[in-house]
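It is worth pausing here to work through a concrete case rather than discussing structure prediction in the abstract. The textbook approach is simple: state the sequence, then state the predicted structure, then interpret. We follow exactly that order.
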Amino acid sequence: MSTDKNRATAAAILPLVGGPDNITSIAHCMTRLRISLRDRSLVQDEALRALPAVLGVVEDDTYQIVLGPGAVARVTPEFEALVEEARAAAPAAPHATTPAATSAPTSAGAITADDLAAHGAALKEARKARNATPFKLFLRRIANIFVPLIPALIGCGIIAGLNGLLNNLGWVPAVVPALAAISAGFMSLIAVFVGHNTAKEFGGTPILGGAVAAVIVFPGVAKIDAFGLELKPGQGGVLGALAAALLAVHVEKWCRRWVPEALDVLVTPTLTVLVSGLVTLFGLMFLAGEASAAIGTFANWLLTGGGAFAGLVLGGLFLPLVMLGLHQALIPIHTTLIEQDGYTVLLPILAMAGAGQVGAAIAVHYRLPRNASIRATIRSALPAGFLGVGEPLIYGVSLPLGRPFVTACVGGAAGGAFVGLAHQLGFAFGSTAIGPSGWALFPLLDGRAGAGITLAIYAGGLLVGYLVGFAATYFFGFTRQMLADLDTDPGPDPTTTTEAPPKERVPA
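Step two, the predicted structure:
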């Protein structure tokens, strides 16, 4: 039954994106089906948003359909299979010419969820234009390196937490070493995966990037005298692997340009691995190791010395960082902290931004009792918001309204200050993986004070974020003119005939 449901979702999406011949590539991340298109005009945005399984859509470097955690991993293979089956049945078929859907007009004098969605789309396009800078495009490519690693980080993180629980309870001693091996195996080789993905993202041969990065985790590096500097296996971690693979890409491209074709198959891979490997051993490992240590020291100092204030700033500014695309710079930092300490102390604080957003959305729902369209959008998006997928609420509700977005940030700041204060008082904890947020982060939490206190602090932070986001939005999120414009009955809305009204999504 589940397979039939996923295939039905894929079958519903396919014609709305222009059919199989309009698709050049298919991929997915934690929550989104990512599609590269030949002709963007063939996509029926409004019809896609109206599908019950679709939480929102966004156009970035690819066209992205938000399906939510878990669902996207099941729908994507069905979608790929449908595309392949259609192409096999009609290999020479021309592009589909499905006309793009147009939005139905809204009622005069009333503001509906469609109006907010249109305004949110305009804000999204403006943000996309601002984000098309070399620096932000580079950050996006860095994110593309680490996002494919998130499922393994989550799986191993949960197993590590289970192992720690069993170890503390003294249960099943024979199983504990096995779970430890399963959870730690990926992290011990994460540098190799980072090197592989880095080379792939920047135009090199992926396996050569992985081969160079593997030097970092090879146990034999401890025997090497690097100009009197002591080397340790794993020194530099993911940052060293990233730098080593980037160097390998440049060496490989230089070789492709100058090495004769007859010798390319022998000379290019040899020089790529040799030159990059030597530079990694006698330079990059040490430099990246110092950078990694500095990141860990700074994060712990920040939360130990000024936890409440640091949490307030981080929790309050995370949503604007997402709008600017700068949150992607945090992904290597999270991964470095997980590699060093077993968890990232930053993610639970940043997750409070989503709690503020949920609280703000609930307040909007209560403040607009006569606007059925906006209230329906909020009700359909709230379950995903509680699980950490808050973007449909951001672009479908709070950001287009303006003031509720600011008050949502206030809620995130309050939740972040609560969690930061716990760090300042000595109850340090973090997430053993990146990706999930909201309630979905509970299974990944780990801390020095034990599971009970750690879970209670995080739950307390979420509650503070919800309450402050709600109160700030309820009392300060609307002007009288806004209420006069918004709190009206827009009448029947022909675009909301399904259970899921239009929503929007910002990039992760």
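Step three, interpretation. The chain has three domains: 2-101, 140-298, 319-486. The beta strands are 23-28, 32-37, 56-59, 63-66, 429-431, 445-447.
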